[in-house]
Amino acid sequence: MVYKRDACPECGACSFMGTASTMQVMAEALGIALPGSALIPTHIHALKEMAHQAGQRATKLAKEELKPSDIMTVKTFENAIMVHAAIAGSSNSLLHLPAIAHELDIQIPPKLFDEIHRKIPFLLNIRPSGFWPGEYFWYAGGVPAIMEEIRKFLHLDVLTITGKTLGENLEELKQNGFYERCRKNLPALGVKASGIIKPVGSPIKTQGAIAILKGNLAPEGAVVKHAVSHRN
């Protein structure tokens, strides 16, 4: 237990951007999880508050009849892949996102991942592709902060689980002090938000971490992910 505690400390999933963490981020990026909910550290009171808000929202959704198919569209999946590129998300997402899309009769070809990753910069300095542990992501502003950095690329008009658009959610977070609440934890850690989520103007890499390669060894394509050790 001591080894586990020290190796995987106090995060709402893995202490790095593995599959579990990535899919939490993808749920929020797809608009089917509440804004700011992905990867809240387990010892932060905000997790309990978010769970309460999620329960309240679930009961309202039943009355509103807002369905997953109303939220998850082609543009929504494009948004999620853009976020995936910016965070250097798990390569397993190339299985999970198309599988989710398939249930909605939406086709997400590997080519789309490649095209988006080539235009979206890699910004998140979190293990294993970056330096800091996973819980620092939320302290820096989480998924909304990543979305703000790549805002100009996103489809801001897509509907989300809140009943509002993505653009409206992002504006509301700025107005209600979300980022200030997240970042109050950073001074004690001795790191700035900009060291965790790099500005889009000075990314870790100018392209995302995933590429789809084809050749004689993989005529139908193969997924390649690069790793970067980056502290500052």
Strand order of the largest sheet: 1-2
Tell me the number of helical segments per DSSP (H or I, 4 or more residues long).
13
Strand portion: 5-15%
* Major sheet: 2 strands, antiparallel
Task: Give, in order, the helices and strands.
Answer: HHHHHHHHHHHHHEE
Q: What can you tell me about this protein's structure?
A:
Strands 1-2 form a two-stranded antiparallel ribbon. The relative contact order is 0.17. It has helices at 2-7, 19-29, 46-64, 68-71, 74-87, 93-103, 110-117, 135-139, 142-149, 166-175, 178-183, 186-189, 193-196, and strands at 210-215, 218-225. The protein is globular and about 50 Å long. Helices cover 47% and strands 6% of the residues. Helix 2 crosses helix 5 and helix 5 (74-87) crosses helix 7. The protein is mainly alpha-helical. The protein contains 13 helices and two strands; from the N terminus they run H-H-H-H-H-H-H-H-H-H-H-H-H-E-E.
SSE topology:
Elements: H1 2-7, H2 19-29, H3 46-64, H4 68-71, H5 74-87, H6 93-103, H7 110-117, H8 135-139, H9 142-149, H10 166-175, H11 178-183, H12 186-189, H13 193-196, E1 210-215, E2 218-225
Antiparallel strand pairs: 1-2
